[in-house]
Amino acid sequence: MTETNVPTVELNNGTRIPQLGFGVFRVDPARTAEIAGDAIDVGYRHIDTAAGYRNEKGVGEAVRSSGVAREDLWITTKLANGDQEHPDDAFQASLDALDLDYVDLYLIHWPMHEKGIYADVWKSLIAIAESGRARSIGVSNFQIEHLERVIAETGVTPAVNQVELHVEFQQRELRAFHAEHGIATEAWYPLGGGSLSDAPVLKQIADAHGKTVAQVVLRWHVQTGNIAIPKSNHRERMAENFDIFSFELTWDDMQAIASLDRGEDGRRGTHPLQMR
Ligand code: NDP
Predict the structure, then answer these.
(1) Of 123, 155, 169, 266, which is least packed with CB atoms within 10 Å of its CB?
(2) Can you give the pTM of this predicted structure?
(3) What is the C-alpha to C-alpha distance for residues 267 and 80, in angstroms, rounded to an integer?
(4) Domains parsed from the chain with CATH numbers
(5) Using one digit for the tens of pLDDT, what is the confidence trace for 99-154?
(6) Which residue of 189, 203, 233 sits with most ligand 1 atoms within 8 Å of its CB, as the best mutation to test the pocket?
(7) Protein residue with least CA distance to atom 4, ligand 1
(8) For residue 152, how far is its CA from the centre of ligand 1 (angstroms)?
(9) Is 189 known to be catalytic?
(10) Dist CA 151 CA 268 (whole Å)
(11) 191-244, pLDDT tens digit by residue?
């Protein structure tokens, strides 16, 4: 990877993922090439898309027109829920839409607990990784029971679990399980998914460092060890969210933010067991 000031997290297969990436959920497919292109221009080297976002094509266009070497970029995409019965075809369709030879990370988007075939789907992802077309494989929205099952049935531990995680929903138990098993934690809704927490302590911490609340929250993710993938349609905010490597939260700041966790009450998105 080229030198940017973004730290990396080593995955269980030895590859290194940039700890700060750019998410494109709800980015208009017609504007994705431009918006992901702006993100790369600002300095992001990691883009998170999904077949379900319908904007993989724009991400691929942004990669090709960026002038940044492919090996210096990290591209993640995900298997759509409706494609769990045919992961190989779906994966190839994603590569075709991206118009890339490989992705850096391929994730099962949701376990689809009731369907109950996620362990077989995981076996297909293992084969895809062995083919060299995905450098790393992982899961998203998996709970401990889902992780335990795929590990028990295949002996292959997902490199990453991408889950809802923000200051009001800190996923302590899941993170402890990840740490025990060498699974990297990736945070979706890193900024809370649209409305930042209005906890006064965040504003106080931000003021003390001369930073914004969004920057404090993203810095908290980095210091916690999470991979974070904030989204913005606005270049100024992309730059704001990227400018988090020149300051450090104190131990007291980290403790104060830890106390904002509301456990399950803090969840804002869909519960994994409720995704149908
Ligand atoms: P985020 O937590 O990244 O929040 C994005 C929202 O915050 C947008 O409304 C954006 O507005 C706003 N915002 C961005 N920067 C700032 C800032 N500096 N100050 C104030 N507001 C700001 O939520 P997302 O839903 O986008 O999640 C991030 C990524 O996670 C997604 O893009 C996707 O890649 C992934 N994801 C994965 C899921 C999964 O199931 N695996 C589920 C959901 C998300 P604006 O664009 O107008 O700037």
Answers:
(1) 155
(2) 0.98
(3) 22
(4) 8-263 (3.20.20.100)
(5) 999 999 999 999 999 999 999 999 999 999 999 999 999 999 999 999 999 999 99
(6) 189
(7) 193
(8) 33
(9) no
(10) 28
(11) 999 899 999 999 999 999 999 999 999 999 999 999 999 999 999 999 999 999
